[in-house]
Every structure is written in C-alpha cells, then in structure tokens.
Write a structure and sequence with these properties.
heterodimer, A: about 210 residues, five-stranded parallel beta sheet, 5 strands, B: about 200 residues, alpha/beta, six-stranded mixed beta sheet
Chain lengths: ~210, ~200
C-alpha cells in the first residue's frame, strides 16, 4: 500500500526576512522535509491582503467580501495536514501582519457558529496539527502569553489541533537564534516527529477504510 | 493650559461598539472646562505595520514616512491618551496592533538610546485609558490584549498605575453596546475621574 504524503505549510508572519523567527521556522520545515513531507513556506510580507474590516458580511454569506491573497492562503491552509504559524513577539503579541491574517479568518468562525455549515469532526482535528513558532527579544517568562490565545483561536477556527509550540526567548542576550544552544536543533527534531505522527494517523485512517 | 486628550479609535468599523464607548467617555470629558479633545480613527490615520528593521535603535526615528509621523508628535503632546479597540480572535484588532508595534520607536528611544520620551516635568502627569469591546461573553476575552496595551503605554512614559481600563464583553453587532446595562454610565464616570485626576496632577 502506498503511504500518503504529509503536506506541511509554514507561514512566516515576520516583516523581517530571514530573521530569528523565520530561521527557526526554516529549521522546523527542514526537519519535516527530511522525513519526506511536501513542504511549502509562505511569507506574509510578500502577499497582498488587507486587515478585516469588521463589516460582518461573512456572518450572512460565509465568505469574505475582500477577495485578495488571504483567501487563497486559507485554501492552502485547509489543504495542509500540518501548519506552522510563525511570528516574533512585538509588544507582547504577534505581529500586526499575522494578526491581520488571523482576523481575516472570521468567515470560518461565521460558517461554524452562525451559519453552521462548517464542521470539523474530531478525527479531522486530530489529524491536522498546528504549531506556533516564535521568538522574543526579552527573557520574560510571560512574553509569549499574549500570543497563545490568539493562536489557539486561529487553529480552532480552521480545524487544527494546537499541537505544540516552538519558541525561543531572550534573543537579545543570545545575539540571535543561531547562537541559541538548542532551539534550531529542537525545531528540526519537532519537524521530523510531527510529520511521523500525522503520517501514522493518516495511514491508520486509510487502513480503516 | 487646557488638558489635551488624544483619542484613538482603533476599530475598522466606524461608529461601532468600541468607538461608541469612546464617544461616551469623550462626551463626559468634554463637559468639563478647558479640555481639548482630538479623536483619530486608526483606519484613517495611514499607519503601516512595523518593518522590524530596528533602524529606530540607531536613528531615533522610524524609517517609514506615513501617518505615524503626526501620531508620534500627538502621542507626546497629549496629557491623556485613550485607546479604544475591539477584540478580534482573542486579541487586539490588527489595525490597532500595527499602531502599537510602531511605538517601537519610543521603546528604542527609552531603552536603547536612553533618551527621554517626555520632558521630566511632564512625567507622571499623563494618563492612559484603554477601552475595549468584545463579542464573546468570556471574562478572559481581554487577557491577551492587555499585555500589548501595557507595552504601548509603558513606552510612551505612562506607567501601569496611571492607566484606566473599561472593557465590555458580550457586545457583538453594531449598536449592541447601547443595550448594555452599565457601559454608558461607567464610561461617563470614567471620563470624570480621569479629568479630575489630570487636573490635580497638572496643578501639582
């Protein structure tokens, strides 16, 4: 029996190309690639999309009235088995770029909770894993706390289980992720592991059918 | 000298719940003598997201030339800064987050270049107010937004203890806040408290 390949989508929400967060994401994606997954990376800064206008039109139609690159990205997200959403911490939260994308997912929320024409069964959620990749300049223990609830809302809305965090703080003291003793290696290993986990779940599903 | 109030309406939706809450606070403040109020909707202010270039750590200014130039000066000149925003997906809406991220120039000034944000005689004489609304009824719906708001006020030299909060959950569709049992009176009271506190501080 041919095993089904796992698709992994990395979304980089940093405005700073090839900085600490994107490098950490790359390491995760390299690990995923090493296990044979189909891997793609999208850099939000290179897309053209606007922030949510709060018009609530999607509460009636289930679609967004703004047709831009965000819509295609959401289709890509839904077609992925694993998504790794990356953002540095700016002012104790995710970047405005990533927050723009998160806010634009409102039409999935509307479909799930208002129109009730979208439902992700439990086994779907189990087979779809979301990871949050982040770095922060400071060493404060609570520096990622403002980001987690937002990321949780994003994964929940799109039918992904919030599987894990790949985070590294204190970038200012380390003088960058490349000098962090463990972060890049851990990200690589986590990439390998999560692909294996999802591959097993997918193929169990095929065997049961 | 009149008290200068800078009110920032962060919502992409004009005249929705968070802006209405702001308008109530401003109406209360405006009843007092010698209060000058300026309200700016973020979506009309042309504020782009931070590029993360860190140039402000050396230049002491942002490399972007946009509406933040004017906003930067207003943030320094105001005695009271009121930020209002809706909660979207458990966080502050993206447009307001863009403004908060652009305050990085103040953070660089304060902590990297070790320069003052306001003259020493104005320190401790400024107040911050955060107004928020959320559709969700969860009481923890504002928790993830608050650290970013504290960051914003902190870097513009307004201490945590000099910030007031009025956050109303369970108001979703436009106009829902009109039916809230206490939001309007709480907003009115807050306006009075803030102006009276500022008057004392500025006289002292």
């Amino acid at each position: 029996m041919k095993r089904m390949a796992v698709t992994v989508l990395g979304i980089s929400g940093s405005p700073h190309r090839h900085g600490n967060t994107e490098t950490l994401l790359d390491s995760f994606l390299d690990g995923a690639r090493a296990t044979g997954a189909n891997v793609e990376k999208v850099v939000l800064k290179e897309l053209t999309f606007s922030s949510c206008k709060g018009c609530n039109a999607c509460h009636k139609t289930g679609t967004c009235i703004v047709q831009d690159d965000a819509i295609e990205l959401f289709e890509k997200i839904l077609a992925s088995d694993i998504i790794a959403v990356a953002s540095p911490i700016y002012s104790m939260g995710i970047t405005a770029e990533l927050k723009s994308l998160v806010d634009r997912a409102q039409y999935f929320w509307a479909r799930k909770f208002i129109l009730k024409n979208l439902y992700f069964p439990e086994d779907h959620i189990k087979r779809h894993k979301g990871l949050f990749v982040s770095t922060a300049g400071t060493s404060w223990d609570n520096v990622f706390d403002g980001a987690y609830p937002v990321v949780t809302a994003f994964f929940n809305g799109l039918g992904f289980e919030y599987y894990d965090n790949i985070i590294a703080s204190d970038m200012d003291s380390h003088k960058g992720i490349k000098n962090h003793p463990t972060a890049l290696k851990e990200a690589y290993e986590k990439g390998k592991i999560v692909v294996g986990v999802v591959e097993n779940l997918k193929n169990q599903g095929v065997a049961q059918q | 000298m009149p008290i200068k109030v800078l009110a920032i309406a962060g919502s992409p939706r004009r005249h929705g719940n968070s802006e209405t809450l702001l308008d109530w606070v401003l109406a209360s403040m405006g009843e007092e003598p010698d209060v000058v109020i300026e309200k700016i909707p973020v979506i009309e202010a042309d504020i782009n997201p931070c590029l993360g270039c860190n140039a402000c750590e050396k230049l002491n200014r942002c490399v972007h030339r946009d509406g933040m130039d004017a906003m930067h000066d207003k943030l320094i000149e105001a005695d009271c800064i009121i930020l209002s925003a809706p909660i979207f997906c458990m966080g502050i809406n993206a447009q307001t987050k863009a403004l908060i991220d652009r305050a990085q120039v103040f953070r660089s000034r304060k902590y990297v270049l070790k320069l003052p944000i306001v003259p020493p005689e104005r320190k401790g004489k400024r107040l911050g107010v955060f107004l928020a609304t959320a559709g969700q009824t969860w009481t923890h719906v504002f928790d993830a937004a608050i650290p970013s708001v504290k960051c914003f006020f902190h870097v513009i030299d307004i201490k945590d203890t000099d910030c007031h909060y009025l956050m109303i959950n369970g108001v979703d569709e436009k106009g829902a806040i009109d039916r809230h049992p206490s939001a309007r009176s709480d907003a009115h009271r807050l306006g009075k408290v803030v102006i009276s506190d500022l008057k004392k501080r500025l006289a002292g």
